[in-house]
Predict the structure.
Amino acid sequence: MKGAERSVKERLLIDKGPEGFAFTRRCRQTIEGVDDGAEFAALEAALETTGIPGSERVDLFRVLAAILHMGNMQFQATRNDEAILREQVAAEKLCHVLGIPLSEFTRALLRPSIKAGRDWVTQSRTKQQVELSVEALARSMYERMFGALVGRINAAMRRPEGKSTFIGVLDIAGFEILETNSFEQLCINYTNERLQQFFNRTMFVLEQEEYTREGIEWSFIDFGMDLQPTIDLIDRTKPIGVMSCLDEECVMPKATDKTFTEKLHGLWAGKSDKYEVPRFALGFTIKHYASQVEYSTAGWLEKNKDPLNENVTRLLGNSSEPFVAQLYADYADGAAAHRPADAVLGGGGGARVATTLKRGAFRTVGQRHKDQLNLLMAQLTSTQPHFVRCILPNSEKRAGKIDTPLVLDQLRCNGVLEGIRITRQGFPNRIPFPEFRQRYEILAPNTIPRQVFVDSKQAALLLLDALRMDGGRFRLGHTKVFFRAGVLAELEEIRDVELSKIIVQFQAMARGALSRSRFRRRIEQARAVRVIQRNARVYNQLSEWPWWKLYRTVKPLLHVTRVDEEMRKQEARIGELEARAHSEAAARARLEAERAELERAKAGVAAELDAERRAALDQEEILKRTQEREVALAESLREHAARLEDLEEQCAELAQQRAQLQAQAAQRHDDGQALADAHARAA
């Protein structure tokens, strides 16, 4: 809600940041690198993709805002130990958001009416009772809203009829060990204990099934039984465990947290190595797979009852906000509908998560938690599970920082170290035969004969015999060789030593080859220097020899006779070039004459073409004038034709008028004749 738009916040009366609400005041306000506005926009987009429209999204935010306002309500006790509201601002905001009257809400919260026999009586509540009632109401609202959202999402992702395959994601809180561990931590740790047992059985049943497939002799061990004593201590019914004992005390009229703790000590103290009695605190200690946890039983009976104030829930069932009213429809006046709360978002269907119970069926929180956990375990057992262990690197939510003690605590609490402990009891390391031969043949290079074929399994056995491996530390399967914990690490260390020796030997040979190459190059350089020096000395001696001096003096004169020969060759070449020039000039003159003749012919053809073009232009002009004349005559013809039509119409009209006049004249003549006859008869 921190990143919500201002219009949404104003509509839901959220005028403060997280630090202004009691339920979020102690949480981390800001996270480095996280944009609350972008996160809220991503949430809106996800809800829209799921098919939840804007009005229904506001209804979801309405419930969250109501829970925030609910946490800000403050109470104080009067002299009579009766609870009253310290101020009404938070209550007014809460009632406005939920659509319920303020006066009825405060009366139902502080002085609810309860049924005693056939009569209704008003009961005053203490400050602690009201605060517990508010907390229970907040949990109930969030639970029902979350169930409605889950039902809506399941309806949007409804698979076709007849399909039984699906992918489910289970995200749970890890094992919790706090400074003060209460009923909530017991429920969380009990859930983790059951899930760790499921993990152990699933993973190591698969592990042992692989031993069977590979033909390894192995007696089946139920690793899940390691955690069974702790689970029995919590949920056993005979003798009763912690949960059952707590449920039993919740129905006792004068039971208290102290009587519950004493009864639990009497049942389990000294009878289970998983149960211990603390020296001073009111509580008990349970040894879980992750660690030993001391639980404080203060307030457990009230937390387990988790009673909802039916006066308040009845108000919510009759709220003016449809979504809130449907969440608590089973508490509305009159048994209008006992509809589940997860069917209120858009008429959701599909897989539902039951979040409400029939009125009058009292079930404790522990009972509901065990039932839901049993359903979950049954669902997990019918699926093919995969496990992902999530590790929080640091509590500051910063990238690139590892808090080693925190990581180790999480590895211990989420069962990774427990899984490693159990894995070490079997053969946790395994490697296929071809890969084993390829990787570790270097440890015994001459063991496998090269001239004959040896299959990979026999080769692996030969290598293990050559390494003098104890038979109890490995097993040969059909396709793999299995090792006890630590054996493969020893082989890797031996392999590293052998590789180091080979690499050192290779480096020595490479250095030797490089040194010899440099030495040979230096020898060749020395030989070349000696050859150059010898040639230099010979040249110096030759330059002082008289015959060599005479040769150097005569040598330039030997080129004089060659000059005359070169002159004769050049003169002959010049004569050939002159003859070729004369012939080319004659050919050029002939071509010039032909070009002039062609120019004259071209000029004549151009004149004829020009005359023809002018004649064509005259003809085009005549044709154009003729066409224009034709168009004018056609236009004149159309005008005369139109005029003729007008005259014909006028003639027709005149003829019609003439006929009418003639008819009128004939009529008048007949009327006159009739009148004359009438006069004649009258006379």
Observations:
- Strands lie at 75-77, 83-85, 113-116, 119-122, 275-276, 283-287, 292-296, 429-432, 474-476, 480-483.
- The first helix runs from residue 6 to 11.
